[in-house]
Amino acid sequence: MNVTRIPPLIVVVVLLVSAVAGSAVAQSDSGDGDLYDSLEGMVPMYNENADSVDLGPINLAGTSNLYIQDGESVITYSIVMDKQNRITALNDAPGEDAKRKITTDRATIEVLSSANNPAVAFRNAVAADDIVITGEDGQTVERIKWAVLNAFKGFFL
Fold it and tell me: Which of 2, 4, 54, 95 counts the highest number of beta carbons within 10 A?
């Protein structure tokens, strides 16, 4: 096999797998007030510590949808961040203009919400794949970018 074909092949496989896996998850339209409140309460502490964490080339500026697996359902919120990766808005509904998809589970959100330094806890959860960042459905460039970043995040996180 030609070595120059391997990287594009890997990207295509990752995109196909993430597209199939992403469409198989059931979505919940109703949020969870306690979960949202804990996230909302965590934002000031996260922002206070955001500059203490080096995320390497990862920048989450703009809107990202946050998908939280909670038992059999998925709760979806949106987060808006600035170029310093500080949270400027948290919404209890998905953002129509979101380019990224951040997926995790309720237990990880509870760890972030109760951490002394939620920014470090976020970075550690991304490094451990407890939080996975991909491109939102229909955002091909973001999907490719995050497939590459996820493949090589061990080198910079």
Answer: 95
SS3 category, 32: coil
pLDDT in tens, 106-148: 999 999 999 999 999 999 999 999 999 999 999 999 999 999 9
What is the C-alpha to C-alpha distance for residues 19 and 60, in angstroms, rounded to an integer?
A: 21
What is the helix, strand, coil percentage profile of the chain, to 5? 50, 20, 30
> Residue 142: which of 78, 62, 32, 73 has the closest Cα?
62
Reported pTM: 0.78
Domains in the chain (CATH in brackets) are 3-155 (3.30.1050)
Query: What's the token pair of residue 72?
Result: 């059999």
